[in-house]
Structure formats: structure tokens, C-alpha cells
Amino acid sequence: MAEAYIVDAVRTAGGRRGGRLKDWHPADLGAAVLDALVDRTGVDPAAIDDVIMGCVSQVGQQSFHIGRNCVLASKLPASVPAVNIDRQCGSSQQSVHFAAQAVMSGTQDLVIAAGVESMTRVPMLTATTLAEAHGYGSPWSDSIRARFGVDAFSQFTGAEMMAERHGIGRAQLDAFAVDSHRKAAQATAAGAFTREIIPLPVTGPDGTAELHARDEGVRADASLEGVAGVKTLTPGGTVTAANASQICDGAAGLLIASGAALKTHGLTPLARIRHLCVTAGDPVIMLEEPIHAARKALQRAGLSIDDIDLFEVNEAFAVVPLAWLAATGADPARLNVNGGSIALGHPLGATGAKLMATLVHALAARSGRRGLLTMCEAGGIANVTIIEAM
Q1: Which among 368, 328, 377 is positioned nearest to 349, based on CA atoms?
Q2: Catalytic residue among 89, 97, 181, 277
Q3: 346 given a catalytic annotation
Q4: Cα 360 from Cα 343, distance rounded (Å)
């Protein structure tokens, strides 16, 4: 089977809801990533076989085929096709998987795996709330409700269930959140994100033109006292807005290539994809699946948890990486070393590619060999990608 290589990986700096990226149409955000990959690698844009674009809220400005619209807004020729992927929070990680599988199968040679989400312009759950407002009903049929004994599936409920099951209290969650901001602030100050972030022109508060090149949600002054003072989302619960991921605008993407394409286009890869898998489990607690998925991926790859130099486990809620660490026995010092979504933001459909960009460049910066990315996804699904630095 052919190998799949990561030639380059880029992302935008995260924008807070209503923040510095509020004036960017999501198609233009995605296009900026596509253009950056072409510019940085020097590849002929007409040679791109496909663009696979992750996006969760495919409605409003992200409707009518957001992947194709990103291509049309970019410098890629109209001859380059595109497709949208919705695997919820894992959408653009799945984009990476589909791109790699296309290359490994020998049917394509150069594929861009990307994701975009403007949570300012298309708020989370817009499609569901619009449908319910117009009387079109719920996405969950009576048979689904009867089978699982719930009226609806909620990640917030799942997070509380997970905290109770794994014995993780509010104090642990809050401490993890503060640490996420601390690591992200240190990484920003040290220039750890410089290679992966593509600066975007924005208008500053005073009306002057600026470049957006720093993640907007990072709080260098985050304190345990401040985080602990935030109210829980449910009475008596543990989850708060401060120990969960931030709403975020952003886009990210990777150029995936075959070995033949590396030679043809004179490309030097950053990493190769060692293994990829996706699993599914309990849709009610839903956030626990990365534990099982990581175990399966490591077993099938013939690796142990200690063989991995860096881990990226999405901080949808602090309880997810904390429970994952406890269950897998992974070294906490190797986890989310530059902070995570609690500090840097979680632009839903773009997060998988965003975290992969961070992982690829962090491995290079630390001379690491292997990295593992996993994240929880609505419905009880989880993707795992294992990469090896070149």
C-alpha cells in the first residue's frame, strides 16, 4: 500500500466570537488556508486532485457546499473539486483520514484536507434551532429516543456523566483549564505557533488595518481563583464555560501527498501518516470514545502508549483529556504541550486539522518522532491519527 505524507499544515489564529475574524466570510477563511498551502509548498494548484473540507454547521454562510465555495474563493482553478465532511467535532480530522486513504489507495496523489467554522457568523446548533423554530422537528426520531432512553443527546450531559464516572471533580477541571491557558500563553510568547499560523488582514478597534496572527482567546493572566468563580452550566455540576472549549472562528488545512507526488513536484514532507482509525460507542455519554479509539489504534499500529512522543487530545471539556490520561496511562507532560481548545478555541469543523497542524509542527520543534491526535465527537464517535515525523 502506498504511503501518505503531510507536506505542510497551516491554520488561522483563532478568533473569539464577535472578535477579530468577525468580518471574514467562512468561504474566504477556508480559501486563505488553501492559498497558503499552495504558496508555501510551491505546488501547481491545478495538480490538486481534491479538497476535503470539514464543517459542522453547514447552513447560512456555510451552506450550499462550503468546500466548493472555499475553492471558488481561492486561487485554485475551478477544475479542482471539493466535498464537505460532517463528523461533528472530528470533521476535519476525518478530512485528513479521507485524504490519506485516497492517496494510500493510489487513486489520488495530492489532496488538501481542511476545515472551516465561523461560529460568529453561523452559531453552533443553528441548523437544529432553525428547524425546530419552523416546526420541522428534532433530528432524533422516536425510535432513537426509545432505544437510548433520552429525549435528546447533549455533550454537556455527557461531560457531567464522564466526570462522575471517572471521579474527576471541579477542582481538577479548573486546574487543567488554567494550565491550558498557561501553556498556550508560553507557546505564544515563545513563537511556537509562528510556523503554523497564517496571518490574516483584519480591521483593528481604531479602524486601522492589522494582521491577525495570535490566538485571541488565550488568557495569560488566567488564575485558579478566576476560573473557580465561574458558575457551573447545571446546578450542582462541574462543567463551566471556563473549563470547556472556547467558541472560535477559524480554518486549517494540510496538503497530503503520495510518494510519487513528492518526487514529481519536488516536495519535502513533514511527516507520514502511520495509522488512522475511527470508532464509535455510547452516544449518551459520548465523550468517552477517545479512550477506546486510542487503545485500538495503538494495538493495530503495533505501538504502546510510551512509543508516542506527543499527544493532542481535544479539550472540548477538561474532563475528556483528564479521563483519557488516567485511562491510558499516558505521560501528562506529553499532552497538549502548547495548550488546547480551552485556551486556543475550538472552531468545530476546523479543529481536527488545526490540532494536526499544531502536532506536526510541535514534533518538529521538539525533535519528536511520533504523535497521536484524537478527539471526542457527537454521537459517541472518535477519530485517532498517528503520525511519524520525517
Answers
A1: 377
A2: 89
A3: yes
A4: 19
Where helices occur in 106-237 by DSSP H, the ranges are 126-133, 142-148, 155-166, 170-189, 224-228
- Residue 15: beta bridge partners? 249
Which parts of the chain fold into alpha helices (H)? 26-41, 66-73, 91-105, 126-133, 142-148, 155-166, 170-189, 224-228, 259-265, 289-301, 319-328, 341-344, 351-366
Active site residue 277: no
* Nearby residues of 61 by Cβ (< 8 Å), 6 or more positions away: 25, 26, 27, 118, 121, 122
Q: How many other CB atoms are found less than 10 A from the CB of residue 229?
A: 11
Give the residue carrying C-alpha cell 507557546. Answer: 187
221-271: per-residue pLDDT in tens? 999 999 999 999 989 899 999 999 999 999 999 999 999 999 999 999 999
How far apart CA 285 and CA 376 sit, in angstroms, is: 11
**Choice among 55, 70, 248, 376 that is catalytic:** 376
Q: Where in 259-346 does DSSP place strands (E)?
A: 271-280, 310-313
